[in-house]
Amino acid sequence: MKNKKVLRGIIIGLVVLVFASLCIFVTMSKKSDAKEETLPSVVISKPNRQTLVESVTINGYVEAKAMIPVVPFVSGTIMEYPAKAGEFVTKDTLLAKIDDEPFRQQMLQAQAAYLAAKSTFDRVESLYKSGATTQQNYDTVRAQYDASTAQYDLAKLQVNYTEVKAPVDGTILMAPLAVGSIGTQTQPVAVLADLTNQVVRLKVPEKYFDLFTLEKENLKVTVIRPAEKNMYEDALTTATIENIAPYVSPESKNFEVVCHLDEPGERFRPGMFVKVSVAYRTHENVPVLPVQTKKLDGSCYTYDEKTQTVSYLMPETLGDDSSFFIVDEKYADTYFVTDGQYALFDGQKVRLFSDALKEYE
Question: Is the pTM of this model over 0.85?
Answer without folding.
Answer: no
